[in-house]
Amino acid sequence: MLRPIVVGLDGSRESLAAADWAAREALRRGLPLRLVHAWEAGMAPDESELPELQAPRYWARRILRSAMDQLNEHYPQVYLSADQISRPAADALVSAGAEAELMVLGSRAFSGFGGFMAGSVALATVAHVTRPVVLVRADQTLEDEHMPDADGRPSAHTPYRDVVVGVDPSHPCEELLAFAFENAALRSAPLRVVHAWQLPYVQSAAEAKARKAMRAAAEKALAAVLGPWREKYPKVEVVELVEEGRPAQQLLQATQDAGLLAVGRRIRPARLGMHTGPVAHAVMHHVRCPVAIVPHE
Known about the structure:
CATH topology of the largest domain: Rossmann fold
Helix content: 40-55%
Oligomer: single chain
Largest sheet: 11 strands, mixed
Distance between the termini: 25 Å
Radius of gyration: 21 Å
Order of helices and strands: EHEHEHEEHEEHEHEHEHE
CATH class of the largest domain: Alpha Beta
Shape: globular
Number of strands: 11
């Protein structure tokens, strides 16, 4: 049975942009698309006819119906379904995400930064869903996935923008690399693999030599990790970027003109709460393109 791509809808511009992006992803992958809206009003049988619940129930249904109509018009080839779930939003999305191939959520932009401001629901979902989660900004369009045309204008008919993935060779993540290579292959897009390293403290006289040796070791380690994946996806153009600096900052620079960024998130015991890791947390807040958070052991 095919796992669907699942979108969390709340009626906002961000969630509608996420649904639009998810429909295009469903087309690329040949998967069904499931729309989910969580409605937290009282759902006990004796409360079902209370007048004060009729208006929110109506708007909850309208959110799904309007999104279904719009997506059916723009993407008639996609098989759509919709569910209204009477649970708190984060709980509903985590449950739905467990059965998904991919979970897609909208995320608000920071004024002045142009990146993500992930609310509590998005953060809780990212921290607990065991499948990849993609965060999409409200202003993302079909043209943003593609390179500009020869005149520098937005286009939906040019090649896809690069996919970027952040990798630490000392902690290789098969799930993350599988996601990144698969998405680059689906788009026939180049894959930029970013590995950031930092020089530990050394005496100034030995600094240049130590930096050269550390860069060489980093390049060798990354090449070794990518070797099997290059063989598995020979048609994917891979660009290795081994840069000195903080990982989040290097990823921010590498994604200035990218179409998708993928980073990993280590799955932690539930008792540790909402923890996404410092790199995932930083890129969720500041990277402009869609961000995929891929959980792994």
